């Protein structure tokens, strides 16, 4: 799950993270139903608002959070750190922040796509809106098999309430929140809306279901990678192309993502160097199918000198890959049958690092 409102605003402009970008996906977006039931889920909840397997969490939103289709609720998942296997930060977005964001986006859309400096400035201004988000609570997944680290100690010290939700195997799940909302500097209307949303935290705990976390690698690996779709150039393509190579490197990227774009030239060079090892490189453009994004992707690839195949995700890719990963770029490797080999790689890497990953995976399938 991602920073929703601002991510949507930034999408189509550019993401300025140095390593990886959150994929845009709405809080109420339909999650693909897993073909394999997770046995550790304590009850079968068919319709949930949010399901995050990597955190071992699924939940519904309480009443006030659901208003206006949940557009005022932001859900963000930081990367795991130390013994914290996962965090889910839930915040309230004020109406005036949303209105200002869309006004800024409207102006940013007028910037020529070739004016990278102006685009980056506009995105930086949009990202400043994050500071206006008003925190509600945090759900933390703790791996008790690891020693308590500095990150957990500092995080827990910030909150008056640290409610244990449940224990599952070696994982503990906590809901962190303070007794009162910080309404300093808010208008009367905003204060009322935020306090009403804050009052729902007491009802939220009962809407949370926990289970043993499933890593992105586990989630993606349980299905053979298959697709039948088109390349950006409109050529028919399907997963039978895997049979032409011993190993295929699949780079999932987005047109809004700076680190994704920055590594494209290196990936092109890599694709040429590893051909002799019977290794192929392809890309999946995560923010397609979309006519405008497809054209933008073509422009980006042309500028970066990329000639390896880039494809538009079909429903199978969306359900079995894109819905399972939180950040782009994410890279996975498959063998000639479409089986995932090794762990997924999240974030950008250098050419030499990718070469080492390729060598390690080739050893695993020999």
From TrEMBL:
Locate the Thioredoxin domain: which residues? 218-364
Q: Which UniProt keywords apply?
A: Cytochrome c-type biogenesis, Disulfide bond, Redox-active center, Signal, Signal-anchor, Transmembrane
Q: Which GO terms describe its molecular function?
A: antioxidant activity; oxidoreductase activity
The reply on keyword RNA-binding is: no
* SUPFAM superfamilies with a match to the protein in the record: Thioredoxin-like (SSF52833)
Q: Does the keyword Transmembrane apply?
A: yes
Sorted alphabetically, which CDD domains does this protein's record hold?
Answer: TlpA_like_family
Q: Where in the cell is it found?
A: Cell envelope
Q: Where is the signal peptide?
A: 1-22
A GO BP annotation: cytochrome complex assembly
GO CC annotation: what is one?
A: cell envelope
Q: What is this protein called?
A: TlpA family protein disulfide reductase
Native species of this protein?
Paratissierella segnis
């Amino acid at each position: 799950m991602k920073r929703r409102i601002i991510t949507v605003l930034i999408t189509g402009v550019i993401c300025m993270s140095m390593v990886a970008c959150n994929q845009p996906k709405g809080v109420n977006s339909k999650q693909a139903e897993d073909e394999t039931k997770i046995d550790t889920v304590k009850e079968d909840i068919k319709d949930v608002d949010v399901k995050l397997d990597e955190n071992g969490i699924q939940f519904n939103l309480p009443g006030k959070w659901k208003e206006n289709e949940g557009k005022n609720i932001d859900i963000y998942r930081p990367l795991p750190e130390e013994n914290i296997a996962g965090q889910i930060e839930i915040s309230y977005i004020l109406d005036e922040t949303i209105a200002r964001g869309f006004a800024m986006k409207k102006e940013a859309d007028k910037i020529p796509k070739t004016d990278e400096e102006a685009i980056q400035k506009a995105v930086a201004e949009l990202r400043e809106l994050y500071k206006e988000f008003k925190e509600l609570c945090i759900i933390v997944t703790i791996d008790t098999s690891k020693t308590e680290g500095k990150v957990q100690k500092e995080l827990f010290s910030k909150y008056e309430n640290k409610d244990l939700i449940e224990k599952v195997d070696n994982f503990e799940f906590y809901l962190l929140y303070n007794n009162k909302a910080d309404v300093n500097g808010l208008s009367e209307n905003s204060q009322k809306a935020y306090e009403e949303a804050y009052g729902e935290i007491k009802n939220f705990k009962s809407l949370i279901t926990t289970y043993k976390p499933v890593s992105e690698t586990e989630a993606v690996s349980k299905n053979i990678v298959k697709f039948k779709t088109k390349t950006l150039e409109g050529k028919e393509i399907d997963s039978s192309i895997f049979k032409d190579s011993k190993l295929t490197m699949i780079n999932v990227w987005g047109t809004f993502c700076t680190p994704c774009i920055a590594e494209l030239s290196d990936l092109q060079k890599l694709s040429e160097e590893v051909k002799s090892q019977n290794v192929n490189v392809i890309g999946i453009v995560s923010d397609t199918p979309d006519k405008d994004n497809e054209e933008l992707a073509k422009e980006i690839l042309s500028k970066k000198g990329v000639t390896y195949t880039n494809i538009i995700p079909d429903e199978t890719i969306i359900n079995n890959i894109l819905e399972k990963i939180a950040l782009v770029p994410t890279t996975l490797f498959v063998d000639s049958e479409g089986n995932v080999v090794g762990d997924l790689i999240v974030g950008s890497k250098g050419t030499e690092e990718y070469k080492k990953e390729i060598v390690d995976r080739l050893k695993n399938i020999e």
